[in-house]
Amino acid sequence: MFGFECCCGDKDGEFYPLLPEEMKPFRLPSPLPQWPEGQGFATGRISLGELEVAIVKDFEFIASYTPKKSKTGVTFYKPVSIPEGFFTFGYHCQLTDKQLRGHVIVARDTQNTAVTDAEFPPLKSPLGYDLIWSSNSVYVWKPAPPEGYRALGFVVTIDEDEPDVEEVRCVRDDLTEDCLIDDVILGSSSDLRVWNTKAIKTGMFCKGVTVGTFFCSTDSVNNDDINICCLRNMDPKLEGMPNLDQVKALIDHYGPTVYFHPDEVYLPSSVAWFFENGALLFKKGKSEGRSIDSGGSNLPQGGKNDGEFWLDLPEDENDDNFVKNGNLESAELYVHVKPALGGTFTDIAMWIFCPFNGPVTFTIELLNLNIEMNKVGEHVGDWEHYTLRISNFDGELGSVYFSEHSGGEWVDASELEFIEGNKPIVYSSKCGHASFPNAGTYIQGSTKLGIGVKNDVDKSDRFIDSSKKYQIIAAEYLGGVVEEPDWLQYMREWGPTVLYDGRSELEKIIRHLPFFIRLTVETLIDFFPMELYGEEGPTGPKEKDNWYGDERC
């Protein structure tokens, strides 16, 4: 239980608020199940080669700091309940007004004499500490590593005495990777600036393991200036990853329910239904398309998107309209399972296919104006997805990525809406099928001004329970256990290239707007989604950057 801290100010006018008597950490709505046995998944320990790591989620309050004139500040926490023989790399920091939510990774030497150099062990105590910043009763220290070692975090105290060198450990340089500053925790309103960090290289084959500590500076910095790092997973076996039975158990426990808008016209279908109901394969230079078998075995396989082939709707207008509307009964989620954060987490990417993407709606909220943009935004073959990121230490859901047209966002589990147990809700936007964490209206353009492309999401009686309707289509790390479908190897376009004169349509609208609105819209046009101006035929999941790489934010 956390005690009270007195309110006080310092010479710079900073303010330290009263802490609540008890700060309860976030917990998922339901307890975790007993996962199926096998390998090293959810055992609480993961081997990184010369290091074995564990995760710590228990913290002791150290201090809070709120800059003058700021509505909120940051709170620093010391990790506690560290397993015997393990050491931390630094402290945790988060916004004071947020529910306690975070983790740090702790490590110990595996003492594998076959690979460990006695003179240069994986972990060493720092030589001392450098005081980075202080303000009255908050002191932030950076460990000073021995030669050939690197520090991975910071230590915070409430007095000017230098911390004990046994408080943290530094890591041998060859067991680390460089980091980037990531999300801002405390920004330019203060002379102290604090960030989360991430590995420079992220994706399925990357080895960087972030340890949950923070980076701070008294100056604005760029990524060329920082000297902090994360761990590197040197174990190629990725023993912490789940086996196939464990993956199925994770999907059964966490699989979201995907809601479609009550007025949605263009619903999803299975890939097989799309092929069986008249989808055609076209080849450059040929005027007629050919039918596709239900598994896609007669599609061109492999290679790259060279513009030689594309898919399209049936040529008969009645069949065309029928296929555009999709078939919810046949629809399922297509699952790609892959390592994340150096194999300490698992990403379960769940792809959904819609035969057709409808037109965009342009909105100006101030004028209560909503304009459906004729054919602008329409295209055949729409692939969207969301991704569950799950800890391999214990199988807990950490966050969900929501794909939103050309980008997206990670949403922490503490900010998700759950429908049953630990199953989140995913809202699919009307016509465009982008995914969002909550019902409402999302604007691409200027949210502040209420001007841009409108994404409406809401619950309805049309939904897919992805914990029940899914197909695992790829899990490369399992070494051939999952047989990939033929259609997944089709690297060309799932629809013909479409060109719109979206800018001209917008400019016609702009001419009829009040002058003060007209200037704003003209300024924002270049920030609207590319769908306004045309789109090459969309490619399938395996051609997307995030198939091998990390999600795009």
Overall description:
With 553 residues, the chain is mainly β. It contains 5 helices and 39 strands. The strands form 11 sheets. It has a 6-stranded mixed sheet with strand order 30-29-28-25-24-37, covered by helices on one side. Strands 17-19-15-16-18 form a 5-stranded antiparallel sheet, with no helix packed on it. Strand 10 (128-135) and strand 11 (138-144) form a beta hairpin. Mean pLDDT is 88; it is low at 1-13.
Features:
35% strand; 5-stranded antiparallel β-sheet; 6-stranded mixed β-sheet; mainly beta; 553 residues
List the helices and strands and how they pair.
Layout (H helix, E strand, L loop, with lengths): L7 E2 L5 E2 L29 E2 L3 E6 L2 E7 L8 E6 L12 E4 L8 E6 L13 E2 L3 E8 L2 E7 L4 E2 L4 E3 L12 E3 L3 E11 L6 E7 L8 E2 L5 E3 L11 E4 L11 H11 L2 E4 L10 H6 L3 E4 L6 E2 L17 E4 L4 H8 L8 E8 L4 E13 L3 E4 L4 E4 L6 E13 L5 E8 L2 E6 L5 E3 L2 E6 L6 E2 L3 E7 L4 E7 L5 E3 L4 E5 L23 E2 L2 H9 L4 H10 L9 E2 L18
Parallel strand pairs: 20-32, 24-37
Antiparallel strand pairs: 1-2, 3-4, 4-8, 5-6, 6-7, 9-14, 10-11, 11-13, 12-14, 15-16, 15-19, 16-18, 17-19, 20-36, 21-22, 21-23, 24-25, 25-28, 26-27, 26-35, 28-29, 29-30, 31-32, 32-33, 34-35, 38-39
Protein name: Vacuolar protein sorting-associated protein 62
InterPro entries: Vps62
Pfam families: Vps62
